[in-house]
Every structure is written in C-alpha cells, then in structure tokens.
Amino acid sequence: MIDKSKNDPTVDVASANAIHNDFNRTVIISPADVPSSAGGESAPSKKAATSSRKKKREIEDIIGGLNITPYTSHDLDTSADLESPLNVLDTKYSILEEFAKGGTSTVSIAKDRNLRRIVAIKSLKKEAESNPELLNSFVAEAKVTAQLDHPGIIPIYGLSSDDENGIHLAMKLVNGKTLRDYLRNIILNYRIRGIDSFDEDLMLRKRLEIFLHVCDAIAYAHHRNVMHRDLKPENIMIGKYMEVFVMDWGLAKIIPKGGEPETTPNRLAGTPRYFSPEALRQERCDARSDIFTLGLILQEVVTLQFAIQGNAEKEQMEHIINGDIEPIVHLFHHKIDKSLQAIIKKATAYWPQERYQTVDDLADDLRRYMAGHAVSACPDTYFSKLARYVVRYRMEFLSGFIGLLLLLSAITAYAIRRQLVTTRNLSQQRIAINYSYNRVASVARHLDITALNIQDQLVSLARLVGTLLAYHNYDPVKDAEYVFLPPMDKIKKTDGGMGMEMEKEMNLQYSLFYKRWVNFDCGVITYAPDSKMEACEQFFHKAAPSLVKMKEIVLGSNFDTNLSKDDLDAQKNAYLSKGFPVRSVFIGSPDGVKMLYPWRGNYSRKIDPRKRAWYQNALNQPKPVWGKPYMDLDSVAGLSIPCSVQILDLHGNFCGVASLDLSLNHLTHNFLERGNVGEYVLEKALINTEGHIIVSSKSEYFNKMFDPEKYHQEVPFETPLFHTPEIREKILDRGRDYNTFIIEENGKRTLYSFAYLEVFQMYYVVVADYDMLIKHTADLQKSN
Q1: Where do the DSSP E strands lie in 632-737?
Q2: Which of 112, 298, 604, 713 is deepest in the core (most CB within 10 A)?
Q3: Could you give the CA distance from residue 213 to residue 237 in angstroms, rounded to a whole number?
Q4: For residue range 606-636, what is the model confidence (pLDDT) as tens digits?
Q5: Residue 594 near residue 587 (C-beta atoms within 8 A)
C-alpha cells in the first residue's frame, strides 16, 4: 500500500495538522495499530434489514447508439506497467508557474503548446523517484484516473518524462476549492453573521446536489469495478461554476467479486476518520465500504460537523470500530428532516449488509427525499403518506377545500351574523367594565401612594423624637428657635378680642378657611390636669427640635406641591385660604404633655392626650394605624382621619405617640376629580373591612364643612353599613383584591367596581348605572 499523504503535493500534512486539529490526512496503518472494540465488547449487534413495502419499478432509459460497451466497460488496469515510452514534457507543455508543493510531488501550471489550453502538471520529486513503491503508486493513480472517464472525475491528459527521466502527470486544471473548504466557509459565515441571516434549507439543498455529483462519480467507478478507498471532503473539488470532481485515486483498487476472498493486507491505507468498520476489523472490503464513507461525508454535509469525533487518529478509529457515530444534530441546531436522518443512518450502518448495497440506491433515496417522495430508509406511515399525497395534489385539495369553505360560509352566514352582534355586545360590555375597573384601580393606587407618603412622614417624626429623647440635651439658647406656646386662654386678651400689639408680637395670621388665628412659627403645648410637670418639662425640652419635622409634614402635605424655601410663603397662604391635607401634627407623652403644630387660636388647654382615640389606637399597634373619622374643634374644615404611630426609644421602650389629622375633604377631592366621572356614577365610597361606610358621596358628611358652634369633638360620628348584606359579602369575601360585579337593583343593572386600599385598610367602591356606562364608553369610542 502507498502512503498517500506523501504523494499529494497540495497538502503539507505536518504543518496542516499543527494548524487544524480537524484536518483529515491519509495514513498507512499496520494491523497492530488498529484498535479493537473498547473493553473487549463485541461490535453493535447485527440487525435484520427487511422491508415488506413493494417498490414500483421504473422504465430504464437506454442511452447510446453504437455498441461500444466492450471498449468502455473493460476491467481497469491498476498496475504500474507502461507499454510505451513516455513523451518528453517540454515538447508538449511549457511550465508557467509552480503553485503547490507536497512531500513527494509538486503541482505546476502549464500551457499545452499545440492546443493552447492551461493544464495542471503533477510532478514526482527526484528523491521520490528512487522509491519504487512511490513511483508505482504515482503511475497507477494516473492510469486508474485516466481510465475513469466521467464528468465527476478529473480528466488525465497524459504522462510525460523529461531529460532527467522525471515523471509528470498532465491533468485538467480546476479553479475552485475542496468540499472541506466549502463547508468551513459556510460554518464561518454562520458563526459571524448568524444562521438566521441565511436560508439554510436552500443552502442544504445546494450541498446535497454537490454530494449527488460525488455519488454519480463513485457509482460510475463502482460500475467499472473500482473502489476509491480514500473518500473525504478534502478529496472532493468544487469548481468555480459548481463542477464537482472526485480526486486522488491513488489508493483505488479492484472490487473483489462476490465470494472471492480478499488477501488480508499487511497495512491499512486511507484516512482514519473515514475508515469503514470492516476495514479496521481486517475483513473483506467491497463497494459498501465506500458507501459507509459516503454516509459519513453526507452527515458532515448535512450537520456541518464531523460524524466521527476525536483529534487523535487512534481515538477516531476506536469510535468507528465501536460504532460510535455522533448523533445527527446540526451544528447550529437547524432542524434536520426525519427522512434525511434515516438515509444517513442507513448509509453508515455498522454492518455492510444493513447499508445501501449500491451507491445508486443511496443517490436514488436522496433524490426521492429532495423531490418530496418517500424513501426506502424511512417507509411512510399512513399519516405521512396522506400528507405527501396532499402536498403532491395540493391544487386539487386546495380547490376542494375552498369549495367546502364557501359551502360552510353560506350555511353559517346567518349564524355568524348573529354571533357578530352578540360578540359586539359582549365586547362593549367588556370595554365598559374594564373602563370602570381601570379607573377605580388608578384612584386606589393614588390614594395608597398619598397615604403611604403621609404615613412615612409620620414614622420619620416618631423616630426623630425617639432619637431626641435619647441624645438631645436641652440648651435654652440653642433651643430658643423651637417655640411652643400655650393655648389662647393662657395668653392675655382685650375685651374686644386680640389686640394689635399681641397680634404683631406673636406673628399671628387669621385663616378665613379655619376661622381662627394661626401661627406658623411655633406650636401649641398643653398639659393634662393630672400631669407630672417635671416629667412633662423634661419630655418637652428634649423633643422640642422635632418642630422642624412637624412643619415639614404640615406645610409639605399639599399633594401637588413640593415644599421648598422659595415657595414657603405661598404654602402658608394656601393653608390659610384653602386648608391643607394634613391639618395638624401632634405628639403625646405618657406623662400627659401634648405638642401640636401649627399653633391655633382656639385650642383648649384642658386636654389629656392619653384619653384621646388617636393615642389609644397606637398603644398596642407596632405599625402605623389609621383611625375612624371624627369631628373636633376644627370641624369647620370637615371630618378628620387620624393616623398614629408609637414613639419608641433606642431600646424599643414605649415613649409616647406621634399622630396627625388628615382632612377627609381634601382626600375625597380625589373621589370627585379622578377616575370615574360622569352621569353614570351613582355613588363613590370608602368602607372598612367590617362593611361600615367611612365616607360616601351620598353621606351628609361627604365633602362638607360644619359649624364649630354646633359640631365639636364630643359629637359621635356614625358609620352605617354599606348597602345590602349580599353586596357587602361580594366585596368583603374577595379579600384584599380588585374586582367588579353586576347586580340587579330596582329593575336596573348596577355595576360595582372596588379596590382594596392597603394603607388605609379600606375598600374604595364605585357604584355605576351599567346601561349608562355602556352608552358612555360607546360615545367615547365614537369620538375617538
């Protein structure tokens, strides 16, 4: 056998292996180097290859006129004998350029002196000519290739000698690249630009057509009773115009006839990655060995990755002899058709009798797959056969399907029309319900954010007071700016009211909204009748700097304004004329002292903070708690909702309560101006988790101011239950949720939309006339 790597001038095997781990070289291997099955196990078990499907026969088209078969189908001469002397190279060709050099030969570009065509001249090197084995292999390759006259095999123009008895082979010059380079170029583009940038189905079809050209060439060689034995992508050349040539027939040999024993060779020759299992087992090899190699090449063409993995040649041979062929998976995860996978598996079957028996069978199956027909490697099931039948007669099926659709359309036209009307009504209802629901949710989120912001401010005040109680030491000079004055009844007044001098001295401003005197620079301090003055004074002096935070909470509580030094005066004027959401902030201690901001002219000194609801609410609550609405001396501004939180020292001990009053009228402004607004709205309400109405747009207290002479803090505030038990159950049983429901009331459909307010722990409910809401949303759609 011949070392083919030394006879190929286009490849420098040593350097190529150093650069590319996946380069496949032709080698000579002695039987001792051939690996046996791993772990002593036997090769894959033999499978029975039976098929019950009958294949329809096709008419063979006989091509040819003259009976020249005896001259074109004779047995090939694979010897190295030459019957006549060689012509001198220079008499026929002129060398233009040497463009490739291998271990044993070189390839040059030359011109035919007479025919003027450009050819390739492959020349055996001088040092190789002295080796009879290499010389014989060179001549045998030339003779075999020349006798295989096929478009897929490189044409040989002749053998020549020179003045120094060198030997040269003239052949067709192919301007192209190998199949290996072609596949590498595809892989490189897919990796750089992504496979989605290309039509891989079209590219695969093009690669399969190239492979079919290879099959045609090998089928012809097998017809001439010659097997290639060194098929690999590196030995397949693709021309500039997609001509396909199978090259390097140096290892070709006559196919042994059936029953004829084959002499076991002393050495294997070929490329380890593309050996057949029977070759590695030193068994008889025939055309089916080439078919196995074609199957490996087909898997590479389809998947763009090796069918036999491994960098070392011994590792590759171990995979083959153990039947370890890689799964048929595309390198870039493109889907591979089941039929195409079956063709590859059959071509690469471990046992020769389970493979395609001829290359024509392989090519025919592949062509049937490309034409959309069933393949022998994967017989059709009933459903796949039906699918192919539908595809084949798609025009007839399409016509019948369209006719059926027209018939069904005619039969169901009336039903569809009614369904459209019903659907339109349902759509209008869904739009109306979503319209109300979304606006309820929007207002609920706004209320929660508003309350959470106010609650966070109060928590900050409580923490500040707790820190002051632990660290602040009273300094009469430094703490002089933190002023808390006693109530009005402790300040001297004239009979006609407050004197002008007192007004100027205290920097008082009269609020037309609250109908009282207000001082924004200081707060009010009161003591319970039974308080311990020494303890109260100590608490007050330590907590006095919290006045700054109390100012920030009150004057910065306007929902649409951020408090800053530049607009401080504007905020004070707004408070006097319109009132603010947070009316006042106060602190109560366990000893009975109360600190309140801002200072108000009608505030009573006879107040025990420990007995007030806002104080009691926070005693057993570690988190901020919102109380029930109530009326006090400030009832001229309407109802208030208190929010309270415990004051704890650094050790977590209870030190008092911080609280504030939130104006319900400012809060309910969101009810009127936001969310659902229109004639369809019947009622808006806040109810607690027990179903009691906290505030309702139908309540006498809703958005209302009261005469302080008639209403005061001792008047009880009534909270009736919301609507009927059935309605309350539908709302409260949902838990902390958002929802809607429709109920029949007084002969009309009423829509209830509600949302749970996490901070207030109440439900925001909107009651709407359902039919009017439908009309309202329909009008909005028309206007848009």
Answers
A1: 640-648, 654-663, 681-688, 693-696
A2: 298
A3: 11
A4: 788 999 889 999 998 889 998 888 776 666 6
A5: yes
